[in-house]
Each structure stands twice: as C-alpha cells, then as structure tokens.
C-alpha cells in the first residue's frame, strides 16, 4: 500500500504560525480534558448525593465519556466541511464551538439550583463539545502536513501532538492549584467553574490569533486544479482502500490506548493495587506529562533523521521494556523510584506523535480530513468509553493488567513500524491531486 506522501516544496510555515497552532491545540485539549481532573467534584455538583461510592464513580465516568460519543459525528460534519471549504474555516468553527460550549458549561446551574435539569444540561453541553472537538485534532495535523516539506514532516507534527499534551499538563496543574487554594466545599459550590472560565477565555484568544493564518497551499492548489468536488458517494468509494483504513484504525488504537493509559488513567490504576504515596504519584504524573511532550518531539526528530518506521520500531521496543520494568519496580520497590520510572515510561510513550505522521499520508487531499477524522474519532470513541471501565475491572483482578495492555499495544506498534519501514519511499503529496 503506497502512501500519499507529503510535499517537498519549500516550507511556508513560520515558527510564529507553528506556535499559534500549537497554542490553539493546547487550549482545545485543556478545554476537553479539564473535566477529567474535576470529575469527582462535578459529579457531586451535578448529581444528587449518593452513599454508594461506586455509583458516584460511574456518574463521573458517564459524564466524561459523553464527550467521546459525539466525536465521530463532529468528525464527519466538520471533516467534510474542511475537505470542501478549507482547513482554516473548519478549524475556526471547531475552536469557536469548543469555546462556546466551555463558556456555557461554566454558566450552568448546579443540581441544588435546577434539580435533574442540571446533569441533563451538562450532558448536552458535553455532547456538543465532543462534536466540536471531533475533527480538531486531525485538522491540526492536516493543516501542518499541507504546509511543510516531507523532510520536516515528523518534527512539525510531533510539536503539534506535544501541544495537546501541554494542554493536559495545564489542566492538571490548574487542578492542583485549585485544590491547594480552595476547600472541597468551595470547589463544589463555585470553584469548579474557574477552569471552564479560563478555558473559554484562552479559546477566544486562540480564535483571534488564528486570523493571521492562511489556508494550506495544497488545499488552495486543489481548489484551482479540481473542476468538481467529490460527492459523498464518490468519497465512500474512495474510502474503500482497505489497507489505508485498517492502518488508520490501528494507529488510532495505538494513540488512544497509550494516551488514555499512560497520560490519564495510570495514577488511579496504580493506587488500586499498590501502596504508593499519593502526593508523590501526583507529582510523578505531572512530571511524566512534561517528559511525554519531550518524547513526542524526540521521536519526531528521529523519524526525520532516519525513517518513521525505524523510529516507531525503536520506540515501541523501548516502551515494552520500560512498561514491564515500571510494574516490576512497583511490585518489588513499592514505588521508591516512581519519579524516574514514570518519566521514562512517558518519554517512550512519545511514539504517539508518529501516528500523526502516518495518518496524514494515508488519504488524498480531497478526502483527507474526512477520512482521518472518521477513523480517528470512531476508534477513539470506542477506546475512550470502554477502556476506563474495562481496564479498571481487569486491574482489580490482575494488578499487572495495565502493563500487559501496554505491552500488547507496543507489539502492534512494532509490527506497524516494521511494515512502514519496508514500504517504498514517499511520493510528493501534490500527486494526491491526481488520484
């Protein structure tokens, strides 16, 4: 399966433009993930008090998962709009919707104020936010990919992927600041609104900055050279590229699994079975997000210096070894070196940045955003809703379940790296205009 590879033209994306894009990505991820860190507080605020801790946890998970359910619908609608009308307007619409839904969330009444309408309204706002966020990640990748030459593709895309992790780190740090300066009761009464207000304001700043950016040169060229726009029926036929779709699904499975486990779920999974100092674990988690950012950029640089396949194989092997070492350390050292071990594990998880390098090259320009967004978000919706419950249940039975799962994902990643390494050299992305 040959790739639709990226442009060899002179880079038309300045560092200023890259920073604006990365800022917007970080803010979007901040808005989407701030709920994760506030889940218990928001569950208490929007649901009636419950004596059953399991029910409270399920309520929190249900609200968090709601954002994943509508991501495929947003991917289809906004992704299709991006392929017809342009990457820039689609990004602006997506970010505007994220900003508005975040601001609406900050203004919602609590259960004490509105009764059963409170969780209903929060659930609806979360659904629309998930829809808006659905195409945002693939759009950011495609926007960068259609600006830069093939020789720098992985480096630039790794910066974009790293910016999402920066948004998560910001969410985590803000939550830590709130919990250290507010009591639990203060957070339940009104303090929970603070991060959503911040997120909305930062999003509107990102919208203003986006106005200085231009449409991608490849999409602009396509608009000039194409005499017609493909109909949905024609796109459906084009999407029957079995190898491309299968590889896109696998890469999204890898990206979503590693981010969900290492960057989001691992602290809670560790506390379920191991006696680790919670404050040290929380600090280790924050530090790991910083090392994940560094790892993303590192593997992007390695991919541009050698090849994407080779970098993916090396990173996957390192991830498997470090995952097993990390859990062996938890079992036998009671987390004595968790600061170092978690940081190294997150650094190896930086191979997720290579997923974007592969995804943007699987489909031609006229359906690139639609195809990447749909495959990415459909897989993410399944993983995002099923993995927290499934892995939590498995960890209750076998403490090493997260390590076994990451090892399984790492093996798949290694095989894909080998497959890509054996593929022919990439062609010019502009060749996709002739497909």
Keywords:
435 residues; Growth Hormone, Chain: A; disordered C terminus
Question: Can you walk through the features of this model?
Answer:
With 435 residues, the protein is mostly helical. The chain has one domain (15-434): MFS general substrate transporter like domains (Growth Hormone, Chain: A, Up-down Bundle), CATH 1.20.1250.20. It has helices at residues 15-46, 53-69, 71-85, 87-107, 111-114, 117-134, 136-145, 153-181, 184-191, 193-210, 217-225, 232-238, 242-273, 278-305, 308-333, 338-348, 352-359, 368-397, 401-421. The longest helix is centred in the first third of the chain and has 32 residues, at 15-46. It starts with 14 loop residues before the first helix and ends in a 14-residue tail after the last helix. The relative contact order is 0.16.
Q: Give the CATH H-level superfamily.
A: MFS general substrate transporter like domains
CATH architectural group: Up-down Bundle
SSE order:
HHHHHHHHHHHHHHHHHHH
Estimate the helix proportion, in percent.
Answer: over 70%
């Amino acid at each position: 399966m040959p790739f639709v590879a990226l442009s060899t033209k002179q880079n038309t994306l300045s560092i200023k433009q890259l920073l604006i894009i990365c800022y917007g990505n970080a803010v979007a991820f901040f808005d989407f993930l701030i709920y994760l860190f506030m889940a218990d507080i928001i569950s208490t605020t929007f649901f009636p008090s419950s004596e059953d801790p399991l029910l409270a946890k399920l309520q929190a998970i249900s609200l968090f998962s709601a954002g994943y359910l509508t991501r495929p619908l947003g991917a289809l609608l906004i992704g299709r709009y991006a392929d017809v009308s342009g990457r820039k307007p689609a990004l602006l619409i997506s970010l505007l919707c994220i900003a508005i839904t975040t601001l609406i969330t900050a203004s919602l009444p609590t259960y004490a104020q509105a009764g059963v309408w409170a969780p209903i309204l929060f659930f609806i706002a979360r659904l629309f936010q998930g829809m808006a966020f659905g195409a945002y990640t693939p759009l950011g990748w495609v926007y960068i990919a259609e600006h830069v030459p093939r020789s720098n593709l992985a480096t630039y895309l790794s910066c974009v992927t790293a910016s999402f992790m920066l948004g998560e780190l910001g969410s985590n740090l803000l939550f830590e600041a709130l919990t250290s300066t507010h009591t639990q009761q203060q957070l339940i009464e009104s303090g929970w609104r603070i991060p959503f207000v911040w997120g909305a304001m930062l999003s509107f700043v990102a919208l203003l900055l986006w106005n200085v950016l231009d449409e991608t040169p490849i999409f602009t060229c396509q608009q000039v050279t194409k005499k017609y726009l493909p109909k949905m029926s024609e796109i459906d036929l084009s999407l029957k590229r079995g190898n491309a779709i299968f590889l896109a699904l696998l890469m999204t499975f890898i990206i979503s699994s590693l981010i969900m486990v290492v960057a989001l779920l691992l602290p809670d999974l560790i506390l379920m079975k191991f006696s680790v100092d919670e404050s040290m674990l929380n600090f280790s988690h924050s530090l790991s997000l910083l090392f994940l950012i560094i790892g993303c950029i590192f593997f992007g640089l390695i991919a541009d210096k050698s090849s994407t396949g080779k970098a993916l194989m090396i990173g996957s092997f390192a991830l498997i070894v470090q995952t097993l070492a990390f859990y062996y350390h938890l079992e036998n050292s009671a987390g004595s070196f968790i600061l170092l071990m978690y940081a190294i594990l997150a650094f190896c998880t930086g191979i997720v940045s290579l997923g974007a390098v592969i995804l943007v090259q699987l489909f031609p320009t006229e359906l690139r955003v639609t195809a990447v967004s749909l495959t990415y978000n459909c897989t993410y919706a399944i993983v995002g809703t099923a993995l927290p419950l499934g892995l939590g249940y498995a960890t209750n039975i076998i403490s090493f379940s997260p390590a076994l799962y990451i090892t399984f994902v790492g093996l798949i990643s290694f095989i894909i790296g080998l497959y890509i390494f054996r593929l022919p050299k990439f062609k010019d992305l502009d060749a996709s205009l002739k497909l």
